[in-house]
Amino acid sequence: MYVETFRPNNLEDVIGHLEAKESLKKYLLTPGFSKAIMLTGPPGIGKTTLALSAAKTFNFNPLEINASRSIRSYEDVMKIRDSCRSAINIHSFIKGDTKQKTCVILDEIDGSDPHAQAKIVEWIKDSSRKVPIICTGNELPTIFKRNSDHIEIIRCFPPRSVDIQKLFDMDVSKQLVECQHDIRKLLHRIQYGESDILPKVLVPPTGIPIEKSFQMRQSMFDLPDSLHEYRVDILDNEHSLKTKLKCKIDEKNDHIDESLNRQKKSGLDKSHNYQKKKNLPKN
């Protein structure tokens, strides 16, 4: 994908985000890492790219973790915390490169479990922590707002249209507006083209009980029928393809019709005999 192929590896190659780049540079070059960085902003504007390129630029080994998928409990945070007790990871140690330290990047932190976020804040406050932590997310978690003394919150905004246009030989102003300045979506549009809109299929009402109960609840609270635009028949009519328990009388199905009549007759005879026995006087 173009998004991964053309992702910049150097912080200076990232377009825009001047304030964020300065803050990341200052944070990664200052020893101690007493705080953490939180990059927040709309999707597809380069927050993860900023974190990865900053770590690579200042000779860190980025440990990228998708927090919305991998961090769902206290135990998940503790596993990451225990594996990062040393500033040098096992890969750098095997290579003999003791200068390249680890930088933890928690992507999509706003999608992780709130209890796990509390444990992350506890890890950030830990004075024995030796690795820098950079978090990214579309929304700012509430617990991060309450701990702004320990987490530097940086709001990211989409790059300017003029700066983005310099990357392309063709005019992308129209596509950029359609993609709402989402660079990732813009690159997908250029690579794969515009997605087709699925047509709405018009179907008659089915007449099944769950559909009728849904219509009744909607009408009770004066809510619009969300299936109205799909209907081409009267709501009270049953589906024309609904299975019925009747057979057509013809030469092929005469024996079926006769068997049904015999079953009905035998059922009536049994019920009649039962009533007669019930009305007989007791000895």
CATH class of the largest domain, named Alpha Beta
Structural class: alpha/beta
Written as H for each helix and E for each strand, in order along the chain, the element string is HHEHEHHHEHEHEHHHHH
Radius of gyration: 33 Å
> Judging from the principal axes of the Cα atoms, what is the shape?
globular
Helix content: 40-55%
Question: Which architecture of the largest domain would the CATH scheme give at its second level?
Answer: 3-Layer(aba) Sandwich
- CATH-derived topology of the largest domain: Rossmann fold
Calculate the mean pLDDT score and round it.
79
Low-confidence stretches: 232-249
How many separate helices?
13
- Biggest sheet layout: 5 strands, parallel
Query: What fraction of the residues are assigned to beta strands by DSSP?
Result: 5-15%
Number of strands: 5
Number of domains: 3
In short:
This protein is of the alpha/beta class and 283 residues long.
If you had to describe this structure to a student in words, what would you say it looks like?
- 43% of the residues lie in helices and 10% in strands.
- The chain is an alpha/beta fold.
- Strands 2-3-4-1-5 form a 5-stranded parallel sheet.
- It is globular.
- The chain starts with a helix and ends with a helix.
- About 6% of the residues have low confidence.
Describe the structure using short key phrases.
globular; Rossmann fold; 3 domains; 10% strand; 283 residues; alpha/beta; 5-stranded parallel β-sheet; 13 helices
